[in-house]
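One-letter codes give the sequence; each number marks local geometry. A record appears below:


***
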Amino acid sequence: MTSNFVIEKTKSEICKSLVETGKNILLTGGTGCGKTTFAIEMAEQLNLNPVIINCGSTQDARSALIGYFTLKNGDTEFQESDLLKAIQEPNTMIILDELSRASDDALNILFPLLDFRADIRVEERDENRIVKVADNVKFVATANVGLEYSATRSIDRALQDRFLCFNIPYITPTQLNGYIKKLHGSEVSDAMKPLTQVYGYTHKLVKKSKISTALSTRMILDVIPLVSKFTVGQILENVLLSIYQTDSSSIVSDSSIIREYADSVGITFNK
């Protein structure tokens, strides 16, 4: 099992207890803050098989969430979606990732699975069209909520009523260092420390409305493999600061602010 993600202990235990007793929970928070990672680790702790359903890619909701017909040996054959297969497998945690990006059609399909009905009607089947949710199947959803996320939608009351909501904040630089140490050891954690300092600084600036967006937890974790080959300055300049490189001069200045701070903590930008 992976190292436990850094979520406040009481909140983590409450979430796990609710999932265990069959309640649906919705994890909200900024992009890359660890919502999906936390859900997967809850599944591992509860001995459930996690199945991630990307709700942000459901333009054709029926095909994505129920299934589609394909041609096989001259005959049409119905192919069940990953979601339809998952709800029929006991001891499964279905993670509805990026639920706030789901279309109205997708939500209408999901609603009966999430309330007292716990089933889905599959018209494409020749028989047994009502598919019930199997025993010990749990639902956890994630959502990015806020003005920064232009492609998302607000979570309406009908949807909220099918979940208990928990906000997952970005972890602190100290917590992030500790998490990296658990995963990769002290040497890697020490090498990454300047970048976690910059990560923390960007979050302080966002709170003060000094820059447009902050580096996410996921971004820092994703560049860990680079520290054995490149300097932290090279990683910051060529990878992490790319999020600020747009056509807007106001956003370009964000990277200048971050470079100035990086220089003050000893990061050298030798490309």
